[in-house]
Each structure stands twice: as structure tokens, then as C-alpha cells.
Amino acid sequence: MAVTEASKRFAQHEELITGTEAVAQALRLADVDVMAGYPIRPYDSVMSAVAKMIANGQMDADFIIAESEHSQFEIVKHASATGARVFVGSSGVGWMYAMEAIVVTAALRLPVVALVGNRALDDPGAFGVEHNDALAVRDAGWLLYWVAEGQEALDTTFLAYRVAEDARVSLPCALSMDGAFLTHSQHLVMVPEKDLVEAFLPPYDLKKRRFHPDNPISIAPQYNEDWVMETRKQSDAAMRRARGVIAEAYEELRRLTGRGDPNPFVETYRIEDADYVLIGMGTVAMPIKVAVDQMRERGKRVGFLRIKWFRPFPDEELRHFLHGRKGVGVVDRDYSYGSTRHGGAVYNEVRSALYDLADRPPVIGFIAGLGGREVSVEDVFRIQEQLERSAAGDLLAESAHWIGVRGPVE
Q1: DSSP alpha helix (H) spans, 298-400
Q2: Has this prediction a pTM greater than 0.85?
């Protein structure tokens, strides 16, 4: 994207930092008031970076170490209710241990921003990336974003606060980042000065919903059958409004920083004339793009689409970019045992989004990269080969393809 007139007003400098360090820099610039932590890899890298900045006098925030993952989410939930801008995070089974507080935060419509350093759910033990941890809240009222690289980690943290705290939305937002592949790898990141962030991000203000002695209100009353359905519908309306708020905020961030994809919800790569389109989330974008380039050199018309926002799901963009293609291959870094065609969560969402199209393409599911296993360029070649064969065959007899699995498998 070309440098905009607005972006020339603000100084930015380049740093070589990890994905988690980029998030920590964003928290400093966003003036986070309260942060809670319980050590678990890879979220502990954000904790370390923030603790260092506080100790060095570069950041002013209350950093509370909890005795468990559940408690750290309780801390930020209550702090958010009193009007504090908050941050928290976890990974894998730690995220699941906090689930009671996590779902309540969404039901209370509190704009907590959290990092999910995507990690496999035990057992067997694995520190590597899988997306099932963050996907566990896909139906609970959390905004969900999948980050692919360091600059996006920093910029999207600002975006998360702007959207989550908007009174039209007021929902929590989780930034999902692939453990190790993104959280611990270094990237060149343009870090803005504070004046840019202040121009983009207004102060957090809960207004009449703020929990304060001067504003007596009731929080989390027992509604049962009388009003629960109405509160669920209000959350549904907030999630629907989020699309417009995201588009508005994203365009403003692009104008101020002078960078960013044209579309806030998806990234497309060499898709214009593609017969086949591969889809993925997070860092799997890199090997797929490399493979797309190499397949293009061989004359194959293949493109790639990366889903950025999973909630709200980009139905409109998928229908716009995918109608009429010869085949669509969805690469899930997750699993959904017993689901339709035994595919992953992303596969089933994509297939559902395209169902009403008159010229809907065949959609084939692939499971790859579980437990932190690398998805190689050669794996993508195999995926494309199976996509072409499956798209031309009897789709009703097909189920998702697991890539690179060694036997025995039953």
C-alpha cells in the first residue's frame, strides 16, 4: 500500500522483534491499565516483555500474576467492568482451564482483549500449534482473529481494542497466533510513536455500564427463562454490527499507518484468474504462497485466500472470491471429530458459506500440521494434487484428507 498523506504525520521506527514482543509493544502504546498472567508457553513471552518494560519505566500498568489461568481471566473480567483497559492470554489446556471465566466474559459483553498462543490440547503432550484451543469459543460470543506475521500482530492489537471497546460491539476479542511459528520467530516490524495510536484508539469508556460505587448497577443477575433469550439476541446483534465496525476501524488504521491488505476480513494471493483456491489461517499462509508461486511457474492456475477474522466469519468475501472456481481446498490446523465429512472446523464453515451459490465450487477438506508439525511446500503440492482429483470425482464419497500421517492410523 502506498504511503498516505495521513501516515506522513506520524513517526515510526523499525525493530526486529518476535510476534509476542510485537503484541507487548502494542500494549504499551495502547496504555493498557491492567494485565493478568499465569505462565504458560507461548503467552509467557508477552508476560516477560511487558514485565521488562514496566521495570524499565517504559510502561505504566498493574501487572497481576494469578495462581491459575482461571483466576487471571477473572481478574481482567472484573477490571474491565470497572473501566480499565485490560489484557490477558493463555494457550492450549490453560485456555481450556479458564473456560468458565472466558464464556462469562463474553456473556457480560466486556471488551477484554486476549492472546491465544495456539497450542495443541493434551494428551499426548505437545507444545506445537493447533487451532482447537481458540476455536473452542467460536460459538460463545468472542471476536476471533488469526494473525500471520509480526507487523500484523502489532497492528491488529490496536484494531482489537478499537473494535471490542466500540459501544456498538462491546464484545471480547481473541488474537490467535500460531505457537512457535509466529510467537517466537523474529520479524521486521514498524513500531509507531504514541501519537498515532492516540489518534486511532479513543479512551475506553463503558459509560452507564461502568461498575463504580457512584453508579449502582446489577451485574450477572439470574434471568432464567424470563430474559436469557433476549440477552442472547442482543449479543447476536452486536456480533452482526461488528462487521461494519471492523471495516470502519480497519480503513482508519490503514490511513494512519499507510499499510495493510485492501480487505479487512481476508487476504487474497494470486487469486484473480485461479481455477483452484487454497484456504488457510495463520502462518500456514507462508508455505502455501511459496507453493502457489512454484505451481504458477508450472502453468497451474492456483491462488490462496487467508481467513483473518473467523468471528465474524467472512461469508460475503468467500462468496465473492470463490464462486465459479473449479475447486476449493481448505487446510485446517484443527480437527472436529465426527463432523460433516470428518472435516475441520474451517472446512465446515467455508462449505456452509458457499452452499447457497448457484455456481458453488467443490470444497475439499484437508487436515495438516497438527501438534506443531510443519506444513511444507511439498505438502501443499500433495494437497493441490488431491484437490484436483477430488474436485473431479464423486464428492459425496469423500472425507477430509489427512496430510503426512504415518501408520498405523486405526
Answers
A1: 315-322, 345-354, 377-391
A2: yes
